[in-house]
Backbone:
């Protein structure tokens, strides 16, 4: 069964450093998403992406964040200058409208900013 | 704006007992509703979804949920809990037909006692 994959599974970085989180969505899906879950809190939407541009973004997704689909398979989330509060689990998801908007989630990347 | 309320951040049941996890939603349009399960250190797995067809929805692992418009509820049930059901459960809502973001509830941690 096709699944969303994410790399790395864990990332530790120093405050102020740039990180890139990578996702490979399911191959025939057209809509891509990033969510985050701070430890002990609810899953929060960050951004959605369709046709090589951002469809929606939340208040969390400020100028330090960016997304890109650099090739036909990868979908990346870049955090330019990490802050302590960026420490969270980051989930990638994808969907195709033919499956009635079921978003399929990857296993997540746990980011720890020191 | 949509919102989801999950009553009870922690629920404990005995093995073999009924599982009932509560979810109430607020939406300005008839929503799509989802239950996801998160096992420790893993991603989000879809349990079941309501997409305006049958109001009683059956999912994986013996779970089911009933959409009740009059009560704006989508409670998750399982007749007989198993130890392997111990996990965190998230209810989520989205607008239909738009591939828009999921709005999650705060989650319910289910503990199954032997």
Residues:
């Amino acid at each position: 069964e096709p699944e969303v994959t994410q790399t790395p599974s864990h990332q530790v970085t120093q405050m102020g450093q740039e990180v890139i989180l990578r996702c490979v969505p399911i191959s025939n899906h057209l809509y891509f998403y990033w969510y985050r879950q701070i430890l002990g809190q609810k899953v929060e939407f960050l951004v959605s992406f369709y046709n090589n541009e951002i469809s929606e973004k939340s208040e969390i997704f400020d100028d330090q964040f960016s997304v890109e689909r650099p090739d036909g398979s990868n979908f990346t989330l870049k955090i330019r200058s990490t802050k302590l509060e960026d420490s969270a689990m980051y989930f990638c998801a994808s969907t195709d409208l033919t499956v009635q908007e079921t978003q399929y989630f990857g296993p997540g990347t746990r980011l720890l900013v020191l | 704006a949509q919102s989801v309320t999950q009553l009870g951040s922690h629920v404990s049941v005995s093995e073999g007992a009924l599982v009932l996890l509560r979810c109430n939603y607020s939406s300005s349009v008839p929503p799509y509703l989802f239950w996801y399960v998160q096992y420790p250190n893993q991603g989000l797995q879809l349990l079941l979804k309501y997409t305006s067809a049958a109001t009683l929805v059956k999912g994986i692992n013996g779970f089911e949920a009933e959409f009740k418009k009059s009560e704006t509820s989508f409670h998750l049930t399982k007749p007989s809990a198993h130890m392997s059901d111990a996990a965190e459960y998230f209810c989520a809502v989205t607008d239909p037909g738009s591939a828009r973001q999921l709005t999650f509830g705060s989650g319910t941690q289910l503990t199954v006692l032997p």
Chain A has a mean pLDDT of 92. Residues 32 and 94 of chain A are 4 Å apart (CA to CA).
